[in-house]
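In this section we walk through a basic example: taking a raw amino acid sequence and producing a predicted 3D structure, encoded as discrete structure tokens. The instruction is simple. Fold the sequence below.
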Amino acid sequence: MRGRRNTHLSNASTSSSSSTDTSATTSARTSLSEKDLEQCDYLLADDHKPKPRNPFIFYVFATAICISLFTGFSLWQCSTTTVESSPLAISPAAIPHKAGGLPFVDDAGKERWTIYIPPNDSFPLSTPEYQHLCRDAKRLRGTKWSVQQLLRPSGRDTFHDTSFMDVDAVEASGVLSTSTNISPGTCQKSLTFIMDGDASFGKTLLLLWMSYGYAKRDGRAFFLDDSAWAYGRYDSYFTPLPRPGCAPPPRSHLLPCPLQAKHLVITPTTARATFDEDVNDIFKRQLPSGRKKDAAVFDLVRSGYESTFHLIGDDASYAEQRVQQLRASANQHHQPLVGMHIRRGDLRPFELQFSQDYLPVERFTDAAKTSLGPAVDSQGILLLASDDPDIIDSAELTLAASPYHLKKTQERIQLATKLALDRTSPAEPIREPGSAYVKHVDENAGWDGGFYTGLFYSLGDTRSRQQRLLQGQLSQGGTSKETLRMRELVARGYLLDLAVLGQSESVVCAVSSAACRILGVMMGREAIQSGKWVNVDDNRVWSWDGRK
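The resulting token sequence is shown next.
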């Protein structure tokens, strides 16, 4: 544009150059540089000189655009939040006969949605049903979620989907039948954690702590449902949780998704769908670094651990005495108390090279030796906890740990191998005196090789019953007392290992195991940051689910 303005020459300059060839003049004009034009500025007439741009005008213009956008977004938010009280247009035919997502359009023309659970449905719903509800929630919020997330005010630390309407608001409109009369004593906000039939005790424990910490942070009353837990009752292991000072909400109001629902219900299976996008997004906005994000989630889990992990009875006394005994022994040998947790069984590590195998035991022992430092004497100890009862006697591990001596973390409850059971209670066919009939007796099934889900479900049951359990045809209500007793022993031994190892000065483990992530929570953030909690699987840092 400037080049064009500078081609408007005055009459004097035109007449003085009239003898110049026209084509040469055109070529000279088009070849002028910015510097040449500035040097020839005196040739321009005053009324044709370009006027300098005022930067103040630009700032005023940009500010006006920002104010317009902010005002428009604020009005849009008001329109979407005030529509809660407007009548709704939901056709009775559109109401599903089973639990599912319910989209509708309100009288203001806004697209809204909720999660509908028939009031007469049983509680808790099955795992597939809860998963279906979370899939519906993700589908209904669609791309609007991403747009609203981008535009939400920075002061909010949680995401609020303005197109979602809670169940009580939909019921108050009269469109959906009211599930029950809500008494004044009903909690305004709550979180119910359901301990289901998942065989992983550690995974359930981690998610319980995370849910409790989130409820505490978000000002929600916390309820626990252990009626279908594979390990029996919560108070068989821990002191009972304090009761909220309000009544639980109607069961049809308990939603697994979205996270902003007034009354949440979370299970170990649906927790990822509930927390994964929303909670991680919260902390990504507050703490851009992924490691810092994990630290923020860590605080939630740690809060739940401190509030709930209180063993009961003789187990609590034993764990305390065992820690004192082991610390005294370590001090005697002038060494720190260092432990290892080695998970075998049906779990495979994250590291690609060993994804179909186990990590070499040298990974654990080398890291433990680094934490221990040079051996002062040949009697130094190294604690070991594992789901494989035979590993402590293996020549491979003994050699790798040398010159240190391996010692069991706790000796109160030990898993028995088939060999040990055959020595104490041999299974032999039974023959009645004078009879040719021989009654077959099943072989002893020991805890060989570590924790296997199928083996866990078969404890105390016949083979046919085991198959029914694996197919999900039996709940806790159909579990025998003997089965629950054996499962409780397994769980108590696991908890004692964690309680003792968690008091060590350093722990080496693989983060692919839930026990390893639990130990990180028990030892605390400082232990993780200072390298006293050591992961030997795929160089990953601590995270609530082990993922990068």
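Looking at the output, two observations stand out. The first strand starts at residue 88 and ends at 89. Residues 327-415+491-535 form a domain with the Rossmann fold fold (CATH 3.40.50). In the next section we compare this with other chains.
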